[in-house]
Amino acid sequence: MPSADVDDRAKIGAGTVIWHLAQVREGAVLGSGCIIGRGAYVGPDVQLGDNVKLQNYALVYEPARLEDGVFIGPAAVLTNDVYPRSVNPEGTLKRGGDWDARGVTVRTGAAIGARAVLVAGVTVGRWALVAAGAVVTRDVPDYALVAGVPAKRVKWVGKAGLPLVADETADSGRQVEELTGEHRGGQTPAARRWVCPETGARYIEIDETLSEVTP
User: Is residue 150 reached through a cis peptide bond, with omega within 30 degrees of 0 on the bond before it?
Assistant: First the structure.
C-alpha cells in the first residue's frame, strides 16, 4: 500500500502484499505470497520464506529467520537482544556494533499467537504452536503447543493446528523399530501414539520428541 515504508534494498517476492504503515527494512528478503499486516515491522536482513503471514503490528527484529508457511499473530514480538541496555557501562549510547544481535528462528508451518514474546535466539520447531501471550525462553520442539510465562509444552498439535488425541489403533512397537532401528531382545523404547482429529494423520512420541508416521 502507498503508506507502507519498504526500503529499496529489500527483496519482495511475487504476490506478496504489504499493508498500511508496515515497515520493511534494508536487506530484508520476503518470499512469494506473503502478507505483511498493518503496522508490522520487518528488520534489516530478516528472511521470510514463502506464504508467511505477519498480522497487524507484529515486530520481527533482525536477524530473524522465518521458514515457509509461518504465522505471526497480532502484536507478537520476536526479540534480538539477550541482555538489553540502551547505554554501555561508561554511559555512552550503544550503537549497532556494541551488541550481538541473536535472531529468532521459526521453522516451517509454525504459528505464533497474538502478543506472544519470543526471546532472542530461540528456535520454534516445525508446525509448533505458541499460545497467545506466551513468553518463549527456550527452544520449542516440532509439533509442540506451548503456553504460559515462561512457556511450557501443554499438548502436541498436528499440521492442521488442532491438539492431537490418543491413538490406540497402531502397533507402537513396530513403529518405533521403523523410526529408530532399535530392537533389543524384543524390547523397544517407550512410545505414545497420537492422531489428528481433523486429518487422521498419525504421530508417535518417543522421549519427548514427536514424529509423523509415514503411511
Answer: yes
DSSP state of 146: E
Give the other-Cβ count within 10 Å of 148's Cβ: 13
* Residue in 170, 153, 163 with CA at minimum distance from that of residue 196: 163
Quote the pTM value.
Answer: 0.89
User: What is the 3 state secondary structure string of 13-64?
Assistant: CCCCEECCCCEECCCCEECCCCEECCCCEECCCCEECCCCEECCCCEECCCC
**Contact in structure between 60 and 46 (CB atoms under 8 Å):** yes
Task: Determine the average pLDDT of the residues in 167-172.
Answer: 70
Question: Is residue 119's pLDDT more than 90?
Answer: yes
Task: Tell me the C-alpha distance between 166 and 54, whole Å.
Answer: 32
Rounded to whole angstroms, the Cα distance separating 215 from 161 reads 20
